[in-house]
From TrEMBL:
HAMAP family: PurE_classI (MF_01929). SMART domains: AIRC (SM01001). It comes from Sphingomonas insulae. PANTHER family: PHOSPHORIBOSYLAMINOIMIDAZOLE CARBOXYLASE, PHOSPHORIBOSYLAMINOIMIDAZOLE CARBOXYLASE CATALYTIC SUBUNIT. Pathway: Purine metabolism; IMP biosynthesis via de novo pathway; 5-amino-1-(5-phospho-D-ribosyl)imidazole-4-carboxylate from 5-amino-1-(5-phospho-D-ribosyl)imidazole (N5-CAIR route): step 2/2. This is N5-carboxyaminoimidazole ribonucleotide mutase. The gene is purE. Keywords: Isomerase, Purine biosynthesis.
Amino acid sequence: MEHPLVGIIMGSTSDWDTMQGAADVLAELGVAHETRVVSAHRTPDRLYDYAKNAAGRGLKVVIAGAGGAAHLPGMAAAMTHLPVLGVPVQSKALKGQDSLLSIVQMPAGIPVGTLAIGKAGAINAGLLAAAILATADEALSQRLQAWRQRQTDAVATEPA
Ligand code: RP5
């Protein structure tokens, strides 16, 4: 794949089933991206290196997904000026409510654009990352608009 513009990071390989939604939609839209497992608590040095070097490596947007005490998006946002989109992964114990609250309630000054819990949030994070990039990429803007038109066209007029 060409030079990645979007970095998709997640706290565990167990998050991949959810976060694949972001990767899939970015692939559909032809947006170069990379995927990495980066845990805030299990691999803090990896997180530091990733976030500190993200902008310098040419990434434009970071999508960070994590579950439970989900500090990954907030910590990543603290160490990069790139836009960070947070995806709360559905946890077993609290169905992702813990993830959502951990990610969304950032103190003023370090924003994390927080999406919905689970796969819908991951897909929307991919779409939002594409929309951000599309503000400076007319060809991508056209592909994104076409994607949305196909979605509209696929909606049935009757339920059965
Ligand atoms: C978080 O803990 C990860 O983001 C994941 O959602 C959750 C569980 O991780 P595993 O125990 O499955 O590796 O760090």
